[in-house]
Amino acid sequence: MKRRQFNKALAAAGATAAVSPFGILHAQAQKLRVGVLLPRSGYLGFIGQSCQKGADLAPEVIKGILGVDIELMNADTESSVDTARTRAERLIQEGAHVLVGAFDSGQSAAIAQVAEQRGVPYIVNIAAAPQITEQGYKFVFRNFQTAVDIVRNGLALIGELLQATNSVPRSAVFMHVNDTFGQAMAKGIGAFMPRLTQLPFKIIDTITYDPAAKDLTVELSKAKSTDADFLLLVCRLNDAILLRREMVKQRWNPMGIVSPGSPGMYEEQYFKTLGRLSEYSISNVPWYNPNAPLTKTVEKAFLKRNPREKLVFHGLNVGFTFEAILAAADAFGRAKSTEPKTLADAIRQTHITSKMTLGGPIKFNEKGQVEGIGSACVQNLDLIPKVVLPANAAEAKPVFPAPYYKKA
Amino acid sequence: MPLDLVLNVVVSGVLTGLVYGLMALGLSVIFGVVRVVNFAHGEMMTIAMYAATVLFAALGLDPFVAMLPIAAAFFVFGYVLQAGLINPFITRPEHSQFMLLVAVAIVMVNAMLMIFGPDARNVQVSYQLESFEVGKLLIDKARVYAAGAAVLASASLFAFFRFTLTGKAIRACADNYLGAKVVGLDVKRLYALTFGVGAACVAVAGCAMVLLVEVTPSLGPAYTLLAFVIVIVGGLGSMGGALLGGVLIGVSEALAGLFIAPSAKSMFSFGLLILVLLLRPQGLLGKRS
Asked: Is the CB of B118 less than 8 angstroms away from the CB of A42?
């Protein structure tokens, strides 16, 4: 190369670097780099690892469906809001075209701030705090119910459950984790309960607790002392296990444990750790459709990668994580560009009807929120989570009140 | 508020507090004699908890049986750590000792992460979900056994320091370092013995604690902090103070959870700490320096 040619090449490289923030060449990319942020360690570690299974199978399945190449850039948020923020920064610096994650509302809210500031599209897989899509962000999207929707659907399903089982509990004690998600859910329940006069029970006490608590003896003693007919629980995984064990130790046998929409009790680890004690716990949550053609495809890929596992224990986590990456890939396929604004505009135009989870199509509204995602009443029966309501999707009949635990 | 509920919570707080007390006792013994603050204390307890889970998984050993070999191994580990690593720092400035033990703690946490991964582990013994029924009180069996082990270990420690020649020699070192050297005591060996005894204490506490909480590598710093709060409340260097501090913290956390808000429990331990620092800086049973 002659000196003049060298100088020209150098000038061209310099100009490219100057106009491209952080040295990333977006538009020419042949593959979509997806930064996956999940809490794979810490107190949300088991659920984060479950979501990761959905991300891991996505490139192969999506290549088959859309013909789009995806490169995953995985980052562990360690169940910490601060780590989630710094890992999001780093993924963007390393060239992620779109971010996906992060299961938890607090962490997702932090990532959303980073994504918006840096102008990189971010699709929330699972996180319910309404504020994430209420800030007027232009680069933040969510294919999951907000806490308001979860509570509305969850309480409606409780009404259906009581009707289906001819049960009339008069009181409930409400226990919830004291984090962004738990507070958003509590706010939703506080707003909806007075309006739902058809529900026969009243919430007689509300008990908050630390989601990373190692001992919930006092909290459970307090709940037991209310003598409530059943436990309404907004939990995570580890605390759900602690509480169930503590109920046995303190010999508290309410009519049942019902979550109006939180993780924990349908997770594989809940069954593995508690065995028969996991039976009859009820979660009213956004769920996946086991009969959808996409589910069959995903299940095949899931079993290939995890031959000893069952999709039913990971369906929600895998389904929503996979769909978040699918939405990003679909937008990339249409936009044929990784330029952030073009990609964000393409995501806004998404309309995916062939999906894995319950409810209407993946279609983001002007706030970046997908509406019309369905919920199901899922009960632990025969050591697996089974859909018991709505009746048209039911795999088994609901059991409420739950039998005394020694007979479980 | 029903009386039986309050009593249940208080009893649970006392039992947990006794295990906390034993953990803090190790820290207090080491500081009282060697005058080095063990900033890796919580991490050492976490290692003991992991050791209990490993022995349970591999050999089916109940943590109360596993206590003996683990305590013996920790005694040797503590002895070697003091003799090989900490003794050269005894005469160095406090900030050097601080940095050394913080470094040891960080190495321990990362080693645990590498070996065991970030996920929680526990033991599932047959009595884990059972309770004793005393009138209206329901007392968690595992907690009773753990507290019993803590009381037994503490009593053995008191007896060792009071009735054995080695224990008396260690107390002599603690009371008068120069005098102990003048009368010909091997102070460095006694320091190493003391660190070994403190480490064995924390091993017993870890084996008891694994029945009450699940163990993760990140648990260590929280327990180091808790041990500090307890020994400062009870009196740094006072063995009785450590046990009293443990029980006070256990009960105050439990009652705060019951009467105020469960999510504000730890706020009360620190509130108690501030109160003690203001009104009795040497701790409840500590001596004025």
From this structure: yes
